[in-house]
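Module 6 notes. Inverse folding takes a fixed backbone as the condition and produces residue identities as the prediction. Think of it as a translation problem where the source language is geometry and the target language is the twenty amino acids. Below is one complete input and output pair. Work through it position by position during the lab.
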């Protein structure tokens, strides 16, 4: 919704807000990790899987990507909805969202892979052994004096299965999203 608003709505400070989002994309997660830990503690989500998921969902890359997709949709579609008397919510849900579904699919794949592979945030946010993700769990299986490489390789193969499943589910949207911006005219 933020990408749609930045692309199709004209309001004061829109360019400054978009510039801040682009600048925030340049910040690595490690820079804001301490405020994220404090925020998740205040919300009571520290040491839960939600403390890893929630910060990734609102990451500026998704807003940027969906803004670029929404800009590719003709403004006449929004104007036609407005003339027909559709509300802003109905315009977004019934007209704009189906048109930016390829962008949402691509964003879902990128976000999932980013959060799945983000070892550092998982290591900091998850403390108890019952909440560990598979990548942190694999890392804890490495011993100081001995390591069972068979179990490590099996765990690594198992860790790739969810990424493959998510890609297969969103593959149609992902390929549409990649090719949508390739041809202009």
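Target side of the pair, the amino acids:
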């Amino acid at each position: 919704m933020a990408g749609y608003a930045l692309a199709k709505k004209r309001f004061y400070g829109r360019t400054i807000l978009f510039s801040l989002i682009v600048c925030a994309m340049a910040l690595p997660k490690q820079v804001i990790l301490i405020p994220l830990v404090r925020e998740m503690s205040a919300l009571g989500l520290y040491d839960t899987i939600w403390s890893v998921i929630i910060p990734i969902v609102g990451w500026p890359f998704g807003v940027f990507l969906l803004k670029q997709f929404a800009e590719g949709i003709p403004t006449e579609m929004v104007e036609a909805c407005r003339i027909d008397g559709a509300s802003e919510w109905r315009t977004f849900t019934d007209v704009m969202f189906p048109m930016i579904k390829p962008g949402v699919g691509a964003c879902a794949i990128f976000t999932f892979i980013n959060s799945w592979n983000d070892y550092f945030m998982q290591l900091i946010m998850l403390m108890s052994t019952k909440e560990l993700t598979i990548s942190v769990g694999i890392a804890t299986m490495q011993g100081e004096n001995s390591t069972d490489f068979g179990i490590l390789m099996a765990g690594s193969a198992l860790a790739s299965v969810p990424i493959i499943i998510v890609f297969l589910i969103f593959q149609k949207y992902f390929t549409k999203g990649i090719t949508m911006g390739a041809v202009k005219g």
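Reference fact for the lab report: Residues 181-185 have pLDDT under 50 and may be disordered.
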